[in-house]
Amino acid sequence: MNLGELPMIIFTVFAQMSVGAFITLGVIQTVGSLRHKSATIDRIADPALYAIGPTLVLGLIASMFHMNDVFNVLNVFRGWESSWLSREIIFGMLFAGFGFLFAVMQWFKWGTPLLRRIVAGITALVGIGLVYVMSMIYYSLPTVPAWATWYTPVSFALTTILLGSLAVGMAFVTTTMFRRHLLERDGKFFGAKVAPEKADHVQVNELMASSLRWIAVAVIASGGALLVLIPMYLTELAGAGDVGVLSMVPYTGTTMFLRLALIAAGAGLLAIFIYAFAKARTNPRPLAIVVTLAFVLVLVGEMLGRAQFYESMIRIGM
Amino acid sequence: MLGFHFDASVCNGCKACNMACKDKHDLPVGINWRRVVEYTGGSWSMSGNVATPSVFSYYTSIACNHCENPVCVQVCPTTAMTQREDGTVYVDDDKCVGCRYCEWACPYSAPQFNADTGHMTKCDLCADYRDAGQDPACVSACPARALDWGPIEELRAKYGSDNAFEPLPDPSITLPNLTVTPHRDAQPSGLGTGHIANPKEI
């Protein structure tokens, strides 16, 4: 594994996960609002929302280690007219800024729900822009055949969906387990003696169960797509001359086996289990374990995949 | 626009250009603004019981081509990679952040990373020598007079407009300000049957 590119691996994977999680929460808010009160949705969505911030900040800090002279780091915006790298940093900052604004508005309930929804919509659009711009950094290099292909934006988008939705799923089950733990410590049965703010816990459970089922569907679909698209991509590389063949080397051996196994287990088997067992009345403990496990497996798989991606950097020429 | 000329038909791979450049710019181990690439290959043909080998090996001395379409300048996030009025491309040390994106973009390996300063470095066609009316160090050093430099229009009028053979990359990517005289065994860019024999020296 290429440890020299670890900052970039952490940055790209975590930033994409943050964008995916924000969009997943937006979809849950929008679709959920058809059947549930907005306070119910906020109760389940807000803890996940606040978890995105640290994730994104962690990614941004990691990206700083990619700069070899941090004293000149403020110069990285200057090249925005021609450099996708400048644009990436600008979009990263914008996404972090709008995301932070939305989180603060949501925390203090500033503005009308409509205004908050507009800010969230802008944040989501900037997030999609961020993933696009990120992929263009690599896609736009004609000197690296392994990167200048459709696979770069497509695989970045799939990482966004896979990790974003699973991260939200994990945040949901973690919140549930935490609440349950608090209730047990107060000597109350889960749901038996209902505290005022837990009045709609049945609704919360229902919303969470249906969210988890849809998350499972998204994960199975994008994980499945990845399992089909990786061989397609490698077939193309194999036909791209000597440089293409050399670029394929990281996509072989133990790393490749491990990565495919992790996708199949995390985004396949466990996701199917989540879909089948996410019911409002299910005991949340096994579900929480399975969701967490699926998240960890897919996260490791995607980090491995990103390591392969950076290692496949074989340039044409000399 | 200034550029280089390289004559592969007279280069014997002695690396005097490489050494003169390192000496002039006091470059540390591992950084070579000018490099000499050895390209080699071959096969044999059978005629009855007689195998006739046809093998080749030739050298390409290459620095920065101060391209007309400098991809390193375009990808640079800090604008440290800049093109001067005379077409030469240089790194502004006060701006470079050391992200190495230019290194990914350049198919000639012209921008090279200096781990001690954390910045990129590259050939500036010996700007100080030129200001003093001298030739760039590599051009003066070549015992076979395989190197020349000057305004690219003059070089093209003098040597023709060939600018690639193996292992040089497809010139349409960066439009290099480079003219080359091919070696007699030179193979067309992108259609090579040989390989670079000295990857650790470049």
Describe this entry's structure for a reader.
By secondary structure, chain A is mainly alpha-helical. In chain A, 75% of the residues lie in helices and 0% in strands. Chain A has helices at 6-32, 38-64, 84-108, 113-139, 151-185, 201-238, 241-247, 253-277, 284-311. In chain A, helix 1 (6-32) packs across helix 5, helix 1 (6-32) crosses helix 9 and helix 8 runs antiparallel to helix 9. Residues 189-197 of chain A have low confidence and may be disordered. With 202 residues, chain B is α+β, with helices and mostly antiparallel strands. Helix content of chain B is 19%, strand content 27%. Chain B contains 6 helices and 10 strands; from the N terminus they run E-H-E-E-H-E-E-H-E-E-H-H-E-H-E-E. Chain B has helices at 16-25, 71-75, 101-105, 127-131, 137-141, 152-159; strands at residues 2-7, 35-47, 50-62, 81-83, 89-91, 112-114, 119-121, 147-151, 178-181, 195-196. In chain B, strand 2 (35-47) and strand 3 (50-62) form a beta hairpin. The relative contact order of chain B is 0.26. Chain A binds chain B through residues 66-70, 72-73, 75-79, 82-86, 89, 137, 141-144, 313, 315-318, and chain B through 35, 37, 60, 62, 71, 73-80, 94-101, 104-109, 113, 115, 117-119, 167-170, 173, 196, 202.
